[in-house]
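From the pipeline queue, job 12 of 40. The input is one protein chain; the requested action is below.

Action: predict structure.
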Amino acid sequence: MSSDRMVNKRTAYILAVLVAAAIITLFLLISYLHFQGTPAPALGNGPVGNFPIGRISIGNSSYSVYVAANQEMQQLGYMNATGIGNCDGLNNCAGMLFVFNNESRKCFWMKNTLIALKQSWISYDKVNYTYLGTPLSTGIVCSPGSMVLETLPDFPINVSDTVSFLGAYNRSM
């Protein structure tokens, strides 16, 4: 009888270890997926509102962008959007450019933003900081700049790249 109890205890111990390992694995998998952010579709539904369209150049390439040039547009940004949108009708939309009146510290968060975005702070036409924002995060990230460009995470922009804002136009014209 004592050998049966030992077998039962050993079986229960092995079962408990396997269950614990499964729970830890599941926790790690969920944590990994959460911190990876939600993959953003290339287009999807872009920002809500009638944002002007602008052009920027980064190095030798130029891109269309939504332009958030006033406080109302800057507060909306990509809130509740499911993608960066197709701002020029040619699938050449880099994202959204936030243009400010002065060179100072600008703070951003991802609250109510459903897609992962790379945020690039631009100071005196040079990228000085990039940050990968996590969807729905209320963490605040700040850096100096006169412009901030929000793009998909894999967009080719890096610290020290030269960025020029080439102007904007209203889509309704």
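Job complete. The chain has two domains: 1-36, 53-169.
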